[in-house]
Specification:
five-stranded antiparallel sheet, three-stranded antiparallel sheet, 1 helix
Length: 146
């Protein structure tokens, strides 16, 4: 998708360039007509001044809140770059345990009453898991007492 001339800069466009590149490749192939191989140059080549090892910036931010037993979250930015959500629970805010994994990206809440959580004080976190090669983002700690 880059024009390989004197000015070899191709913006990440909040992850959209990456997704469009694969959408274009996928438009030519199917399960019946499979692609043998696909080679991509890394994004820190060709004077671009960026890298992808730490994840492609998808310009997403996520925030969370509690309303009774409902944990709610919202995101801003490129929602199509989010693969799923993961909710974590912690007693100290450092050592996290997965409470619920692989939540559909269209869902924005989790009812905590369906989980066996002992009485006590906790910190909850919601992680927006990016599409492959995209940066993950996590809420600040959300205090929860049961």
């Amino acid at each position: 998708m880059a024009l390989w001339t004197g000015n070899r800069v191709n913006t990440q466009n909040c992850g959209q360039t990456w997704l469009q590149t694969f959408a274009d490749a996928n438009s030519h192939w199917s399960a019946a007509n499979q692609l043998d191989a696909l080679q991509l140059v890394t994004w820190n080549d060709y004077e671009e001044g960026s890298e992808m090892e730490s994840g492609i910036n998808n310009c997403v931010s996520i925030s969370g809140s509690l309303s009774g037993a409902n944990l709610n979250w919202s995101i801003t930015g490129q929602q199509n770059t989010v693969h799923n959500f993961t909710v974590f629970i912690s007693t100290d805010g450092v050592n996290l345990s997965v409470l619920q994994d692989n939540i559909d990206p269209s869902i924005r809440s989790l009812n905590l009453s369906g989980y066996k959580i002992s009485s006590g004080s906790y910190k909850l976190f919601v992680k927006a898991v990016g599409q492959p090669s995209m940066t993950n983002h996590m809420t600040d700690a959300i205090s929860y007492s049961k």
